[in-house]
Structure prediction request, 208 residues.
Amino acid sequence: MRSETERTTACHDCDLLLQLPASAGDRACIHCPRCGALLHEQSDQALHAGTALALAGMLTFVIANSYPVLVLEIAGNRNAATLWQTALALQRQGMAEVALLVLFTGIVMPALELASMLYLLLPLQLGRAPPGFPVVMRLRQLARPWCMVEVFLLGVLVSLVKLVHLASVRPGIGLWAFFGLIVLMAACASRFRPVQLWERYQACRIME
Ligand SMILES: [Zn+2]
Prediction:
C-alpha cells in the first residue's frame, strides 16, 4: 500500500512509474533511476531563470520586428524592410500563402509562445495562480511545434546567399535580433519545468 508521505509520478522521458516522497525536503534534485531525467527540483532557480529569459525574449522579439531584417541595394536604390513589411510586400505580389507563412512562423507563433510563458511564469513567481493556468499550459504545448523561427531564418539565409550575385545585401538589426531570439527561446524552453509549475500552481491555489 502507498504511504501517505509518498506520491506516484511517471518519468516524462521514459514513463517509469516511481514513488517519490511527498516532500523532497532538502534534496535539491531527484533524477529518474532508469534514464536520468530530472524529476523534481527543490530550488526556484529554473523558474527565476525562465522568467528572466522570457522577458529578455519578449524585448528581443520587439527589436527583431521593429528593425529591418535585410537591407538591399540595387543600382543605387536602397531598400530595407522589417518582417511585417516583407509579409505585406509578398501579399501585394500575389503570394498570399507565403506571406501568411512568414507572418505565422515569424511573428504570430513566437509572440504567442513568449506571451503564454510570461503569463504562466510571472504570476507564479509573485506567488499568484494565473487564471486559466491549465488551459494556457495545454495551449502552449499544442502551439510549440508551430513556432519555427529557426526554419524561417534558414529561408532568409538561403535567399540572402542567392541575392548576393544580384545586389548588395546586408543583414539588418532585425536579423541579428532574430538570431538572439532563437537562443533565448531555446534557453527559456530548457528551463520550462511543467511539473514544477503545476506544483507551484497547486500551492498558490491553496494559499489563495
Ligand atoms: Zn526516466
User: Anything to note?
Assistant: Residues 128 and 208 are 8 Å apart (CA to CA). The chain has two domains: 1-42, 43-207.
